[in-house]
Amino acid sequence: MLKAQIHTSSRLDRSLLVSSGSVVVLGHKATSLLWTKGPRSRRSRQIRVWCSSASEAVQTLEEAITTAERFVKVKAIVTVSITVGGVLSHLGINRGLDDITDLLGKTLLLELVSVELDPMTGSEKEPIAAFAHRIGQEGKEVRYEAEFSVPIVFGEIGAVFVENEHHKEMFLKDIVLIGFGEDAININCQSWVHAKSNNHEKRVFFTNKQSYLPFQTPNGLKALREKELETIRGDGTGERKFFERIYDYDVYNDLGNPDKSDDKARPVLGGKKHPYPRRCRTGRPKTNKDPLSEKRSKFIYVPRDEAFSEVKELQFSAKTMKSLMHALLPSISTAMAESKKSFPLFAAIDSLFHEGVKLPNPQPEGFFQAILPRLVKTITHSGNDLLLFEAPAIMERDKFSWFRDEEFSRQTLAGLNPLSIQLLKEFPIVSKLDPEIYGPAESKITKELIEREMRARITLEEALEKKRLFILDYHDVLLPYVHRVREIEGTTLYGSRTIFFLTDDGTLMPLVIELTRPKLGDMPQWKGVFTHGWDATEAWLWKLAKAHVTTHDAGYHQLYNHWMRTHCCTEPYIIATNRQLSVMHPIYRLLHPHFRYTMEINALARESLIAANGIIETSFAPGKHSAELSSAAYAAFWRFDMEALPADLIRRGMAVDDPEAEHGLRLTIEDYPYANDGLLLWSAITDWVEAYVRRYYPDPELVSSDHELQAWWAEVRTVGHADKKDEPWWPELATTGDLGRVLSTMIWVASGHHAAVNFGQYHYGGYFPNRPTMSRATMPVEEGRPEEEMRRFLKKPEKALLECFPSQYQATQVMAVLDVLSCHSPDEEYLGERAEAAWAEDGVVREAFERFNGRLKEIERIIDERNGDVRLKNRTGAGVVPYELLKPFSKPGVTGMGVPNSVSI
Questions:
Q1: Closest CA to 895 of 751, 748, 755, 772
Q2: Catalytic annotation on 754?
Q3: pLDDT single digits (tens) 614-646
Q4: Would you kindly state where each structural domain of the chain is located, as residue ranges?
Q5: What CATH architecture applies to the domain 70-209?
Q6: Catalytic residue (one of 754, 770, 874, 901)
Q7: Which residues pair with 162 in a beta bridge?
Q8: Active site includes 186?
Q9: pTM over cut 0.85
Q10: Which pathway or pathways does this protein act in (predicted)?
């Protein structure tokens, strides 16, 4: 830095000239200009100081010069996590090269970025750079250190550029800057940093200290904020590489594989014919046979930070799922020589939990047991792996509960799918489908039949008026697929309706089931109506009918209430949030924990679960038409404004607005465990979100003027859910109330809704007679069926039921998948459990989050109390599985409780 030479004059009105040209003071109201040379630039810098006198000017200049010459010693501590295959792994020749880089102190190049602009040029100040060198390792974390000399005039640090000089990517945990007074500057990274050899563009990480709406962004960070968003959006061209962070949209055109065989071709989902939310674009080439479909590949791109982290100890990972799909399931098929056959006896089903299935010898020995320890045990004396299921909760408490009507009904309120039951509002029941195509629209369920089954307790009209009748209605959504599904060998399908009666003790009783086969050509429509019956034949037909309904419920639950409403519909929120909201935006920081791992699990689902010939197609009733059915349900039923829990309950007639009631709703069925526990969570979420939104939007006009926020909401509606973009029900985003409701809905769907439909899958579906996923035999009384079927049924009705259930292989593979999908990983992040780093830096937000956390702990206690209340028959009783799916926290494993922040599995 050049030292200024100062000359004084006895005349105050003369210019004070400095021989070096460093300082000029003009006139009585003097302006002092100080030029200095920065440490990294030849460009002159200018400091302008206004003075009231020459003597003051001299004093001010001396102070300015002294300040300009002063530096602060700043230390940066960088924490990098050891990863499998990353720069700190022990794999490959590049490992040695990276060790040399570490020894030379050239591992990471860091550059400090000021929040201020250069006062002379009006552009960003030159960053201050230093290399970080390795200083040690603690456990699975390696620390690096860099030292900077930062001029006092540099201003506050707003961001840090990072350049990875290694030959492989690294997982950067955080950066801490020490030297700016008592408080350290924290930067929470939690991100993969690509190798410079892959991409020369530096990564930027903003400090935790402040969240900024766009207009609040410090001048020195404005261009950087916009540049980072442009980088993340990409240009919409090219095939994505694994290390990239680009977020873009595409349709679901990768579920089939037409190049392999015509039978594996699948329709494109997304567009006018098959409406669907959008997924992340991968840019893979199109198939040879279908120019609209994308080629499948071993690697499915997701933006790098959306992938499962190799840092954590995962019980579920890409490796786990791939091992399950590509190794374990084929081994099960080999082990079960008669895998396409039904279980001969119920005792054979029990043997899966007591004796297990001996698997073929794997290579290496014990491979399956290492990957899937809950499912596979190693037999020490033979070296074989043994597939041995742990008893699920429904079997452990009461193995025969699934046989009872009371449990069949109870699970519509407190089971795996409590989101389909709805109030019966109109009678007679009439289909909305075209009778010319499907046959007569009127149901065969009559007034007389319902009143008979209600045992003369009440008339039909009174039951409707008093809201005592409910329906599980899978008629119109399934009927268009019945004949298409029946073309698939070994499966069948009906449209179905089930009517329930609300008893005086607050429980449901099933009254009647209607199964429908639509007409086809000259074959007329067939409708069968089934009740409990008073003789053996009717009683067993009733059990068969219940098995069909449960199959329908299992398929609809998996395809729509689970996959579509949580996994699929959340992915566009994630893409839009990353493309339109800066990581400095407070709404980005609120939503980010609720998107953890969703895109990765969705990519794995497209690869293995919902793909052609995947688990869903081979083991669930709609078969190869499963994904198309989810599209039909999305088109018919999905509305963003109805995804909020209160709106969903009201829509189904399960609640009404009541300002005097708790949560502002009065439930139609008081003992409705999913609704009661869900409303506790919903209320806690909305209180937290409203407090957060008020912190950053004290004036409602800030919502409408926030261009990033408005672009985000527009992209969610018009691109992410493009096939619904013109619907009138999309909420406006003009006030803080609008914003709070939108955010609460997204958070609820990713947390409470998903937990309710996912983490009980093994509890309720692990013993598959309780929840069969496939019906393989038609009702023996169906019109046009061979008489021999009825004779076999009359002779051995139990065998007829077993033959209707999934085959040995279908049941076993679904049980294995449900076990994996119901498992919490050891690093699970639960709702309200841990504050984000940026929230801890803001006192107001931190206090609001602490209240949220305290409320969730209180909800845990309330749910435990409810499960111990013998008056609540829908959640407690002899052999009843308590309703714990919405208890906020859980230990790792298959627990049937715990509400993670996100759709992470």
A1: 755
A2: yes
A3: 999 999 999 999 999 999 999 999 999 999 999
A4: 16-68, 70-209, 647-697+735-747+835-874
A5: Sandwich (2.60)
A6: 754
A7: 110, 203
A8: no
A9: yes
A10: Lipid metabolism; oxylipin biosynthesis
